[in-house]
Amino acid sequence: MNAQAKHFITCGMYAFTDKLRNAWQSLFCEFMLMYKSGDHIEPIIRFDTDFDLLRDPAMFLGHSCGYPLMRFLQSDCYPVCVPLFDVDGCEGKFYSSHIVVSAGSEIDKLSECQNGIVAINDQDSNSGMNVLRHAIASLGNPPPFFSGVIVSGSHLNSLTSVANGETDVAAIDSVSFALIKDEWPELIGRVKTIGYSEVSCGLPLVIPASERENLDPQGITQALNQALSRLSDSHRDTLHLAGFEDVALDDYQSIIDLETYAAQTGYTELT
Hints:
Elements: E1 8-10, H1 18-35, E2 45-46, H2 51-55, E3 59-63, H3 66-72, E4 77-85, E5 90-91, E6 94-95, E7 97-102, E8 117-120, H4 126-137, E9 148-151, H5 155-163, E10 169-173, H6 174-183, H7 185-188, E11 191-196, E12 200-201, E13 205-208, H8 217-230, H9 233-239, E14 241-246, H10 253-264
Parallel strand pairs: 1-2, 1-3, 8-9, 8-10
Antiparallel strand pairs: 3-13, 4-13, 4-14, 5-6, 6-12, 7-10, 7-11
Helix pairs in contact: 1-8, 1-9, 4-10
């Protein structure tokens, strides 16, 4: 099945403002031009993070968190490449999470968050839950560590809840942190970073696993890099994108290793 037979690209992970969505839209319009060697196909973009979209056979290209990819999407999705972001907390294809507390908090390190309330964006998030669970497990305290866990629905909501004093701590992925800072610098000024999580491979762009033999993963990466080179400086600055790099499933094994370590110390869940 070729790209023209596909219906949509889904890219909701780092697209929470109109400015970001416009920049991604422009990038993918250039991408389709490059990928089809001159046949300009206007892609349908869905700025959504619903896992069902990543399982939809009509998807051409999607953006997934590495944790659900490894846990329950391997039969549906195959990783092609990872966006490389030029922000604090990212190095090449690897990224980490800021561990944040309120700017006015007396907390200076993660161990001082014991018995506090933590905000996570989602139970299936690597950057908001899995790496934080690993960091807590590494402290050596038996569970439960927190007195409460609040699922906020997004990194922006988690950060806001910490800034407002509604929760005590959260892990905010470094790309989201930078993008939030661009749009709401005063919000970032109301939190402080007390540490960083372990690094892991960044959020992959994926194709349907059923199309792995029919599509050209390296050609997709090449076309994305060509598209990025044609993108306006304004859109490039908005996305903080430096390029795209090929990845494979093995690049995400460390995410499962973090989960396994936490489980072996008693933290099968973040508690």
